[in-house]
Amino acid sequence: MPRYKIQKNKKVDVTEGNEEAYPV
Question: Which residues contact 19 (CB under 8 A, 6 or more apart)?
């Protein structure tokens, strides 16, 4: 499962291995 953090009312994928945070 990908990990998420809330950023400016969006869920942002912070899964280890991603080069960037992607809004979901």
Answer: none
